[in-house]
Amino acid sequence: MKIAVIGGGPSGSVAAALLAERGHSVFIFDQGRRPNTLAGESLVPGVIPILRKLDIEERVAAISVFKPGVSFYPGGGKEFAFSFTSLPRKNPQYAYNVPRPAFDNLLQSRALELGAIKVNIKAELHSSGDRLLLSPDTLKSVNAWQGVQPDLIVDASGRRRMSSKLLDIQSETGPRRDVAFFAHFQGFFPETPSGQVRINRLSNGWSWRIPLRDKMSVGVVMSQKDAAELGTSSAERLEEAIRRDPILRKESKDLQRVSEVRTYGNYQLIAHRGSGKNWAAVGDAFGFVDPMLSPGMMIAMDSALLLCKELERFPIQNALESYSQRVTHELRSWMDLISYFYNGRIFELHDAGKAFQNQYHYLPLEFMESFMSRNMAGMASGFTTSSPFSRGVLKNMDRWVLGESATDQKYAII
Ligand SMILES: Cc1cc2nc3c(=O)[nH]c(=O)nc-3n(C[C@H](O)[C@H](O)[C@H](O)COP(=O)(O)OP(=O)(O)OC[C@H]3O[C@@H](n4cnc5c(N)ncnc54)[C@H](O)[C@@H]3O)c2cc1C
User: Fold this and answer.
1) Cβ-contact 51, 10 below 8 angstroms
2) pLDDT tens-digit profile of 309-320?
3) How much helix, strand and coil, in percent to the nearest 5, is found in the chain?
């Protein structure tokens, strides 16, 4: 098949790599302009099998920081430290924190090594019914296709969401309308264990700290209204949020910002469908859940992998339909899981479990705790996020232990 991939971010590069490897004629259209600082630095363990499939894990490890887990600080002096070692041994029990532009370059190089060809232009698309077409100028840039439209267009345009916008596809949205500011800093105290990502609740949102080589990526996420109260520029808002938070203030000294500050509208959005007659959307172009739990890069790369698998299994039309349904399910499952972190019920569940153990100390309840930890680790790592069993366990535990009624929301993020 002739395949045009629009966008050379992680989703586009993985799609291009895997499709080119299978012998298709693949062209990646990429604008080639990438800021030095890009969000999407903390990976989940579910990405590791994809890196191995692409045979680039060693190259990624060489530029990244080993990530053993994530610690949450939901308030009240509590710390909930998740280690990926609680995952079953058949799964990789770690992930990486990656320097984003360099990681993207690595994925792109791999796609080119496997036979994809890169065209350094901003691709233009048109629509005809439910079909996407390359504009005459964009098509002309691929001599090899001699003016013939591709059989498949992969929309990997990220938040530009070209397919949804051109075809007027509506989206389902989540409850949060936050804004995020982030930058790289020096002066934060080292984390324990080394490489651990730290998420802490702020008085009006939450923050991340992602250790990278020689610096810390620090981001704050909050409502637009709360952000406006912190200053006028993005830099003022980020630095003021850090100054105001007791944990961030206490765990840093002589802070020095070593990158520009980037601002992202952090919407939760899933397109009603991610494929059509001759196209499929991968990664953010299909949906973006939320930075909480860092699922974006995994979904970007996994959706690309899933597209290739479905194209191998079925004729193209059935493959595209099945693909769209599966990714919708994956995105919704992440959205669902993340809601337990925003409303704080995941931590209340943990507290309630501990209280139960203390009350019934004569019963062998430890196995329940390790079962629950494994279930959570599997879901938050991307391996079992969409599994009906894991989702059912979480939902039922929530109902049985905390009940249907509203809890005191002491860990909820506002
Ligand atoms: C605040 C914030 C924090 C985040 N943190 C994390 C995290 O810690 N971990 C994580 O896993 N995810 C995180 N994410 C999500 C992650 O950044 C994205 O999910 C991921 O970048 C999606 O990859 P993609 O390839 O789909 O899109 P992108 O990375 O956006 O790539 C799309 C590419 O397509 C190019 N393009 C677009 N249109 C055209 C065109 N017409 N022609 C040519 N090129 C085009 C763009 O220039 C861009 O390079 C975060 C997101 C936000 C907002």
Assistant:
1) no
2) 999 999 999 999
3) 40, 25, 30
Q: How far apart are CA 198 and CA 247, in angstroms?
A: 11
pLDDT given for residue 361 in this prediction: 65
Residue 330, CB-side half-sphere exposure with 13 Å CA sphere: 29
Percent of the chain with pLDDT over 90: 78
In whole angstroms, give the CA distance from residue 293 to residue 385. 11
Say yes or no: CB of residue 176 within 6 Å of ligand 1.
no
Cis, bond preceding 136 (omega within 30 deg of 0): no
> How high is the mean pLDDT of the chain?
92
Give the residue among 361, 360, 357 at the shortest CA–CA distance from 369. 357
- 30 Cβ below 6 A of ligand 1: yes
Q: Which two tokens stand for residue 190?
A: 């080292």
Q: If you take atom 26 of ligand 1, which residue's CA is the nearest one?
A: 283
99 to 52, 107, 184, 199, 285: CA distances (angstroms): 18, 12, 11, 19, 22
Strands (E), 169-295: 171-188, 197-202, 205-212, 215-223, 252-257, 262-271, 279-281, 287-288
Could you list the beta-strand ranges (E) of 287-402: 287-288
**Of 29, 258, 53, 185, residue with least CA distance to 121:** 29
Strands (E), 68-119: 69-75, 78-83, 95-97, 117-119
Q: How confident is the model at residue 355 (pLDDT cuts 50, 70, 90)?
A: low
Q: Ligand 1: does its nearest atom lie under 6 Å from the Cβ of 287?
A: no
